[in-house]
Amino acid sequence: MLYKLTDRLPPLSLPHALPTPFLRPHLPYITGEPVISSHVLSPSLDLFLVLASDGLWERLSNEGAVNTVQKWSHRQALQAPPPSLRPSSPSSQDPSSLPPSTPAAALVEELMVRVAQAQHMGIRTLKHLPKGVQRRQIHDDVCVTVVQFDWGGREGGREG
Questions:
Q1: Please, what sign has the CA dihedral across residues 30, 112, 102, 160?
Q2: What global pTM score does this model have?
Q3: How far apart are the C-alpha atoms of 45 and 143, rounded to whole Å?
Q4: Do residues 126 and 112 touch, judged by C-beta distance below 8 A?
Q5: Shortest CA distance to 144 belongs to which of 29, 34, 41, 58?
């Protein structure tokens, strides 16, 4: 069964996410049946996979996500010391002032920048909003995982 994603429906808990009499008039837009597709990976083209909740995709296009991960990867290659030279003790700096340490964190940071700009507020103000209704009215929750493919020493799809 399908339900339209843009319809304003009351919040649904997971047990109630399946069709109910209330939702039946909104058919056919959301389905409980999976859409299955496949893609043959190419070492020269496929460097990573971004898995994220709609909180990210509401503000970032596919191209925006790819660009953000590629910028993070490039910055890491230029700036990061080899793992053996990285400090083992935690930094005394405020973690929110440090550059993102993972590509997923870079995507969340880009999302936060875009949300802050759209709301005409500073990023620090946005990050310090208390959890709850006020924050939820400004942006959706987000969950991001980036799977980076290691193609046997090939860096960025080129011989390394």
A1: positive
A2: 0.64
A3: 25
A4: yes
A5: 58
